[in-house]
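Human:
Class, as today's exercise, you are to examine the entry below, and be ready to discuss the fold:
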Amino acid sequence: MRNVRHRNLIPVITTCSSEYIRAFVLQYIVMLDAAMAIEYLYHCNATPIVHCDLKPSNILLDEDMVAHVEYGLEGTVSTSSDVYSYGIMLMEVLTKRGPTDEEIFNENLDLRKWITQSFSGTIMEVVDANLFLEEEQITSKGEICIAAMVELALYCTKENPESRITMEDVVKRLNKIKNTFLET
């Protein structure tokens, strides 16, 4: 594990373990960067490495705001479980709501169902208002990009693992969304 290197992966310096705790000693940790790191784990090693615990707290930002993913161990679990976790994480970032958010649970929904219901109306009602500065106008291009990211998150979190897209496709779609947003 210490030999796996990528600019968006945090290298494990060493590990500490006892009967009660297992910890990685890491260097210091945004959505495209994280997707590229996970894609690298799957496709750029002789043996694919499945993260197994992809969540916001396992992504750290460095001083240049580049995301680094703390990676887990290889295992028998499917890469589609990481794709699902990535989709949930993308929803969390876009909505500033966690999967166990009290308001969502009070409606007997999970985060995906809550977003799906909202997606049929205006998606901007569920998107975190802090994604845009107060003085910025939300342009139609910006709204199209946000809607595309929500749609991507929904593709990642399909109930049937075989129906989920791959991390390669996630990276391609995020790059396309980024390019659409940056077009003048």
The first strand starts at residue 9 and ends at 10.
